[in-house]
Amino acid sequence: VQFVESGGGLAQPGGSLRLSCAASGFTFSRYVMSWYRQAPGKERELVATITTAGNGVYYADSVKDRFTISRNIQQNTVYLQMNSLKPEDTAVYYCNRQGPVFFPWGQGTQVTVSS
């Protein structure tokens, strides 16, 4: 199993970024997928979840109405569109299956929101 996250970088408050996660080594279409993030000194937290068919989503209150999760089953990829970014969104972002059991974590992609 492998996850390769990309698309992070430096954004100004109010800006946007689109993260991608390429998954391999398992039957992607059979798993509910999620994005997680970990800020310095904090525990990893759930950001957003999408069902196998992509017709159901969940968002943490902190990102609701700003972030959008989606998936492309043919390309084994999960996306996270992040709009109206805030400094508190600064973290390393990871994708994985829905918990509590996880596949090995990828390296993540750093998102820094700062003026």
Protein architecture, described:
- The structure is a single chain.
- With 115 residues, this protein is mainly β.
- Helix content is 0%, strand content 48%.
- It has no helices and ten strands.
- The chain has strands spanning 2-6, 9-11, 17-24, 33-38, 45-50, 57-59, 67-72, 77-82, 91-97, 109-113.
- The strands form two sheets. It has a six-stranded mixed beta sheet, with no helix packed on it. A four-stranded antiparallel beta sheet has the order 1-3-8-7, with no helix packed on it.
- A hairpin with a 6-residue loop joins strand 5 (45-50) and strand 6 (57-59).
- The chain is globular, with a radius of gyration of 13 Å.
- The mean pLDDT is 97.
